[in-house]
């Protein structure tokens, strides 16, 4: 019984005789006892009865001056703890050199003195701060390992650069700010960040195909990160306003509640949904339903809508068979050939077209209120300047701002800089507030 | 001096009584209960299955009738031939008219696509669907799809051949295993044959049919309408090509001697004969049909 107590340093009674004057394990480290024990292990005849037969000595604590009464009481309490044989796995052969060291370290760390308790508390506090609160490579790794690596942020940099436009100082500054913002966010939460150069390089057979690249880039990124699940597309002119919010807590932990399947909730394109029963009576029940099968598991693409319909400045796709098919058919050359002059928003119009005309897509698509991932600045969507569903509200701490269309006659750099300042002001730490 | 001690009077705090006795016994009914629940659950799963009705067929044949230009006698013979075959093998038979699927004015050949999707939503528990044009006779009804095609599929698949003969640069994959195939087709001399299609139900089939039936293809002025549209999507979209098996035309789509573009002409004992090109006035389809109608085998029902 006594050999099984909580901090028993060695396997009970069958110990070699210790020549140390003190039975405390810590003092034994410097004594010649270890050598004699190793000798004893080699020959079974060296095994002798323990020197002390009382419980106290077998536990490694002789009634010495260091433990007057607290030690005694602790020992008594420990006898009422649930008992199990901690040293069952220790054979005398293993318990030679390293076993002894580990045992001794264990013995020190599991003593229940006030110092040890304070030590453990401090250590766990430091670990908590270092791994969860403070941002450093270790904390990034922890967050990435605990689910962050399932997410990839795809940032489209240099859109139309190279041939179509020449970048000036402001464009460089916008790009630098935008990339730094995503980089910090991805590092904070352990997400992957993939910056894709979208410059025009004559990669495709038709010159305008360049600007339809989104689909191709997503496919390519999915091949690059074979273990990631969700891919978040972000245009260059976006800014993550609340970097302290993770994607998991913002969206994916309650995907079913933050998204909606029935486009009639907000339908600026007036798409007939569900497909009209007189024309599409031949479809299955799921395709005919306004909400598909209404399960979070069938959501494969999450799209926000602005005043003009789908907005692909900030959207999510999930790796799945569905997405593979969608990306494949999205890139269809007949659609491109016939419509590329007419579809000025390129793959965005193409997706709207596919959603309208191919019923299977509706059962895998979910929409998300625009201000969850894609708030607009006042300049965008000038048709509906008073719509509360579209524009950034500082009071509500919207997650992301998308300065959509700022390159057409608005000041991208000015907008980006002002939103960066807002974000910095809102997310000031208590320390810098206090310092002022 | 006594602040760290447990109360002495309470014997429940004694280690020997509590650990050795009271821990074991209360758990036994719990295990029994859990076991009981598990057994009930398994039994429930066993008897309920997946909700599939006992009489749901595993295979359904789809027939879309186009009565314009054909005598009632011809139509009746076609229907009788399919009924006889379906009944002999326990298949379902799903008959519709081309006018049921107007397709916003697309040519009648496109009706097969919504018809197959309709059959799939009607027969929810059926795995396999066989669409066969009305210009065909099942000549050897003793052959079942299972034994004649599905079991033989690994040997029948034609790998690494041009999707559109003779010289398309897109070729069928070399290593697609038969279990992953979702659609079985054959080729004639000029391209993919849409007169005899075997499809497995599922999300892939929905994707494929919807993509094929896209209005952009329907009104694109492909020369051969739905056939060219199919060739287009098969060649451009790897998600479709990977699920496709091309098998010899003879297996389930032999052409009659007068048919156009024949790759495999009908010989005695073949499963199916088709009279391709019926729409052309110089081919007297019904006459040839009636010749072969007399030569078909029948099985006693």
TrEMBL record, chain A:
The chain crosses the membrane at residues 115-133. It comes from the Eukaryota. Keywords: Glycosyltransferase, Membrane, Transferase, Transmembrane, Transmembrane helix. GO terms for molecular function: glycosyltransferase activity. The keyword Transferase applies. GO terms for biological process: protein N-linked glycosylation. Residues 1-48 are annotated as: Disordered. Belongs to the glycosyltransferase 34 family. This is Similar to Probable alpha-1,6-mannosyltransferase MNN10 acc. no. P50108. It comes from Pyronema omphalodes (strain CBS 100304) (Pyronema confluens).
UniProtKB/TrEMBL annotation, chain B:
The keyword Translocase does not apply. Gene3D superfamilies: Spore Coat Polysaccharide Biosynthesis Protein SpsA, Chain A. Pfam families: Glyco_transf_34. This is Similar to Uncharacterized alpha-1,2-galactosyltransferase C8D2.17 acc. no. O13640. InterPro entries: Glyco_trans_34 (IPR008630), Nucleotide-diphossugar_trans (IPR029044). Coiled coil: none annotated. Belongs to the glycosyltransferase 34 family. The chain crosses the membrane at residues 30-47. GO terms for molecular function: alpha-1,6-mannosyltransferase activity. GO terms for biological process: protein N-linked glycosylation.
């Amino acid at each position: 019984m006594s050999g099984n107590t909580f901090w028993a340093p060695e396997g009970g009674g069958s110990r070699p005789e210790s020549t140390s004057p003190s039975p405390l394990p810590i003092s034994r480290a410097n004594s010649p006892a270890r050598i004699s024990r190793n000798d004893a292990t080699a020959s079974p005849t060296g095994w002798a009865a323990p020197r002390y037969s009382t419980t106290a000595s077998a536990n490694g604590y002789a009634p010495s001056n260091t433990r007057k009464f607290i030690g005694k009481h602790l020992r008594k309490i420990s006898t009422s703890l649930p008992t199990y044989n901690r040293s069952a796995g220790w054979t005398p052969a293993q318990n030679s050199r390293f076993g002894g060291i580990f045992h001794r370290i264990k013995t020190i760390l599991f003593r229940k003195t006030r110092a040890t308790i304070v030590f453990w508390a401090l250590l766990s506090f430091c670990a908590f701060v270092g791994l969860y609160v403070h941002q450093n490579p270790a904390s990034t790794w922890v967050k990435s390992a605990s689910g962050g690596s399932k997410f990839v942020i795809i940032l489209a940099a240099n859109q139309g650069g190279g041939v179509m436009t020449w970048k000036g100082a402001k464009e460089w500054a916008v790009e630098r700010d935008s990339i730094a913002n995503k980089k910090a966010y991805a590092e904070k939460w352990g997400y992957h960040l993939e910056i894709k150069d979208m410059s025009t390089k004559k990669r495709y057979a038709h010159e305008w195909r360049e600007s339809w690249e989104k689909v191709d880039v997503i496919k390519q990124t999915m091949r690059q990160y074979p273990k990631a699940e969700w891919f978040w597309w972000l245009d260059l002119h976006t800014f993550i306003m609340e970097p302290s919010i993770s994607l998991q807590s913002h969206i994916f932990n309650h995907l079913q509640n933050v998204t909606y399947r029935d486009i009639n909730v907000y339908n600026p394109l007036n798409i007939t949904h569900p497909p009209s029963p007189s024309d599409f009576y031949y479809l299955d029940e799921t395709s005919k339903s306004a909400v598909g099968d209404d399960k979070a598991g069938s959501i494969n693409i999450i799209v926000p809508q602005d005043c003009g319909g789908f907005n692909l400045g900030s959207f999510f796709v999930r790796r799945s068979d569905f997405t593979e098919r969608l990306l494949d058919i999205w890139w269809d050359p007949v659609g491109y050939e016939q419509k590329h002059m007419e579809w000025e928003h390129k793959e965005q119009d193409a997706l709207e077209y596919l959603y309208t005309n191919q019923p299977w897509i509706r059962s895998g698509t979910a929409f998300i209120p625009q201000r969850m991932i894609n708030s607009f600045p006042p300049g965008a969507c000038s048709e509906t300047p008073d719509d509360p569903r579209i524009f950034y509200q500082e009071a509500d701490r919207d997650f992301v701002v998308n300065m959509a269309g700022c390159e057409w006659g608005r000041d991208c750099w000015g907008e980006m800089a002002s939103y960066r300042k807002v974000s910095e002001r809102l997310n000031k730490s208590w320390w810098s507030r206090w310092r002022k | 001096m006594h602040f760290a001690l447990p109360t002495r009077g309470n014997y429940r705090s004694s280690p020997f009584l509590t650990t050795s006795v009271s821990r074991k016994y209360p758990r036994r009914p719990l295990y029994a209960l859990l076991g009981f629940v598990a057994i009930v659950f398994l039994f429930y799963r066993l008897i309920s299955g997946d909700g599939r009705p006992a009489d749901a067929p595993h295979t359904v044949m789809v027939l879309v009738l186009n009565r314009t230009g054909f005598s009632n006698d011809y139509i009746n013979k076609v229907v009788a031939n399919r009924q006889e075959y379906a009944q002999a093998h326990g298949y379902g038979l799903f008959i519709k008219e081309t006018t049921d699927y107007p397709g916003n004015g697309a040519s009648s050949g496109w009706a097969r696509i919504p018809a197959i999707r309709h059959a799939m939503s009607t027969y929810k528990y059926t795995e396999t669907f066989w669409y066969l044009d009305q210009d065909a006779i099942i000549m050897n009804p003793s052959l079942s799809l299972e034994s004649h095609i599905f079991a033989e599929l690994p040997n029948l698949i034609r790998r690494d051949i041009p999707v559109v003969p003779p010289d398309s640069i897109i070729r069928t994959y070399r290593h697609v295993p038969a279990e992953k195939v979702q659609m079985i087709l054959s080729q004639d001399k000029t391209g993919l044959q849409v007169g005899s299609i075997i499809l497995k139900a599922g999300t892939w089939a929905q994707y494929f049919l919807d993509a094929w039936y896209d209005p952009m293809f329907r009104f694109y002025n492909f020369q051969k309408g739905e056939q060219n549209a199919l060739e287009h999507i098969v060649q451009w979209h790897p998600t479709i090509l990977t699920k496709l098996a091309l098998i010899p035309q003879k297996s389930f789509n032999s052409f009659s001697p007068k048919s156009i573009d024949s790759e495999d002409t009908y010989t005695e004992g073949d499963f199916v004969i088709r009279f391709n090109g019926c729409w052309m006035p110089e081919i007297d389809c019904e006459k040839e049909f009636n010749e072969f109608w007399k030569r078909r085998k029948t099985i006693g029902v």
